[in-house]
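Justification of resources, computational component.

The compute hours requested in this renewal are based largely on the per-chain cost of generating structure records like the one below. Each record pairs the submitted sequence with a full structure-token output. That output is archived, and it is also reused by downstream analysis tasks.
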Amino acid sequence: MRITNNPNHNFPLSQTEMSKSSIVQKDTQNPNIIQDKYTPSQNNIEKATYGKPNTKVDEKTVEKLKQESERTYHHLKELVKQLLERQGLTFQDIENMDATVEIDEETRVEALKMISDGGPLSPEAVSDRIVEFAKAISGGDKEKYETLKDAII
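The structure output for this chain reads:
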């Protein structure tokens, strides 16, 4: 390839820019002609296109949260079951029943512990689990932040 100097255009390249991409030599027979020889760069060049981040769902955290949720749900269900049994009722009995179920002191205290600060159904504990779950399923992909935030809200 031959490149001739055009006096109307001046595109100066620094020595660093020229050495990265090519070796420039002047033609010995005609000093106005510059020969350019392509030499591939030895530097590791980053991709110019966007690559999807390598994100993976944190299955371990999701499983831990699922088990924790199942334990809490089972505990709450058992609490209601015992309450009903003390009154001679079952879940099937109350399905279509219009009567009121009386809550005894023992059940009230236990339910209060579950929803109080530090309890598994306290607002803080529930919101922490929701956020932890969202982080786990995002795989650390920060682009999913707004989508997950909207889903939580």
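The mean pLDDT is 79. The two ends are 62 Å apart (CA to CA).
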